[in-house]
Design brief:
With 126 residues, this protein is mostly helical. It has 5 helices and no strands. 6% of the residues are buried.
Length: 126
Amino acid sequence: MANIKQTIRNKVAEVKNLPRDQLLGQFENAMKKRQVEWSARGSPITEAEFEAGLKVEWEGPARHIYGAAGITFDELLERGKKAIADTSGAFDLPKNVQRIADMVGRNTPCPCGSGRKYKKCCGKGG
């Protein structure tokens, strides 16, 4: 517990020397990165989820860290919503998917070049 408190104190001291715009920019970039990661997993963060998560974080170290620079919860919320909106739709799947190569049939020669049927070579299950 003492280590956590010291870590927060160190971060607050570090943040006090940063310009507000730089700190808000770092927060915005972190939110964009988080949204891209979640979108890649197939479940982008909604505004409601973001707001709920930020409220939880604000009750912890975030209030001390950002508060030391004079940044309010509402400012973080506005910047964060803007950041996650900027990345939405970046991972939409295409509507029509086309095969590039022909499908290998079970009775066709194996594409590995062994000369055996696919079902007896690379297509052998188990």
